[in-house]
Prior knowledge:
43% helix; alpha/beta; Undecaprenyl pyrophosphate synthetase; 9 helices
Amino acid sequence: MKARTLQLAHAVPRHVAIIMDGNGRWAQQRGLIRQEGHRAGAKAVRRAVQASCKYGVATLTLYAFSSDNWKRPQPEVEALMLLFRHFLITEIEECLREGVRIRVIGRRDRLPRTLIPLIEKAEMETAGCTRLLLRLAVDYSSRDAIVQAAATARTREEFSAALGPDVDLLIRTAGEQRLSDYLLWECAYAELMFVEELWPEFDEASLGAAIEVYSRRERRFGGLAAKQSA
């Protein structure tokens, strides 16, 4: 792939969140089982991380497994957990080389027990990395996270700190146009982008195109446009 230079009207989003949708449809279109789509989707994760580093994104949050995904067929759930395990084992060295810090958000008590030490090891070993914060949402429900934050936070600032940084740009692949219980508080003023590409097809150029569109949007946060306020 040729190197891409972004044509930006304004700044790169500091926090990009992605709902990685379409793995199953990608596999179905090729006559493959759904698990093959998830394997292809795992390769797209690496491309998204590399592109985020290249383009100067500070935080990338990926919706890897929602709390509702436990309802899927057991073989598919097991395949997803194995892919997560494989990532935690094989990608740490690359993350260290690229300066990528890993943080896993969501519940851990329902995950396979063998995953917990791998998660903790990945978070500990990459804790000093500062180029990109990669947050993986696993067994995640935004509504549950909001309930938990509300139980302990005394101020709006503490509430926001408990949930994480505000999202600047949210991308959902595969053409669906809903948030699916993902970062609801953090996306209060996010720019939303719904693209037709299936997640296994998402690459550096895809992220670059989304960032360029984002940079042309005027973010007013409830205020007036620059020309109107002048």
